Amino acid sequence: MIDQTPLLALDGITKRFGQPVDLAHRLLNKFGANHADQYVYAVNDVSVQVASKEVVGLVGESGCGKSTLGRLAVGLLKPDAGTRFWRGENLDKMTEAEQRKVRLSVQMIFQDPYASLNPRMRAVDTVTEAPIQHGLLAAREKKTFAQSLFAKVGLAPEMMERYPHQFSGGQRSRLGIARALAVNPEFLVCDEAVAALDVSIQAQVLNLFMQLRADLDLTYLFISHDLGVVRHLADRVVIMYLGRVVEEGTGAEIFARANHPYTQALLSEMPVIRLERKTYHPVAGEIPSPMHPPSGCHFHPRCPHAMPRCAEQAPVLREIAPGHRSSCHLNDSQ
Fold first, then answer.
1. I want to staple 25 with a disulfide (CB 3.0 to 4.6 A). Which of 33, 35, 38, 129 is the partner?
2. C-beta separation of 183 from 136 below 8 A
3. Does the domain spanning 6-333 belong to CATH 3.40.50.300?
4. Distance CA 229, CA 220 (A)
């Protein structure tokens, strides 16, 4: 049974990256040039709630801002606008000790486990460094602690003395999971955690995530571009496009009654096993430049249902059914 009280809530979160005008260009501007600051809004006014023990799947094409949102959720990036809440309390107004406790409760599993592991550290030190530093574990107990962690994630205890390059891709993913679990988190942000793995290994790691959720009462924000993976794992699904949330709902609702044209296009690309032949139609057009996103609805240049209004006014993300929200002007006429 999922507790509906939000464990983590992101309210109106915005994050931009860019390059302000340098001194040379500012001088040229005084002589009539028109050099302006260049900014990309990777996340633009996004609000997401994740309940305790829930799995929320965050889906979108590359460049939509989902990994940035994950880093904002875990605290690796600071938002330019908006507020993060933990159990209903504003994180910015917590004391340093309270914020440190929350940071331990929210951990991240990265897309490339090899790049995120220190190549000079043995596996036993990789998984015990953080709990020792935070006073959760005595140094003399690290081997026993590492053995129990390795057992949880399906790694043999004799692997504890190995370096990252001595593990296979699937084993490194398990090592990354073990490191995240070492500080007893409640919330895991999984950023494309199985994207680099072979399909058979993906299934093993996904089953591991589900088992850990059941055993440890974990909450996940599971970031992926693979709707098949998300369908297998997530209770709710959030769809992002070019920095904005375009649709959100339960997994059953999204996969049965997708509302937004972008979500429908993504679902139509999912491979299925059927006797009859299926013709795949990729999403039309190219992803616009995030430096110069389209006006109005960002998806309108690629949308088969675009109207003049779509280029002029950004649609509002609103509820179209209980627990199902979508941002599309087509809903205004229903």
1. 35
2. yes
3. yes
4. 14
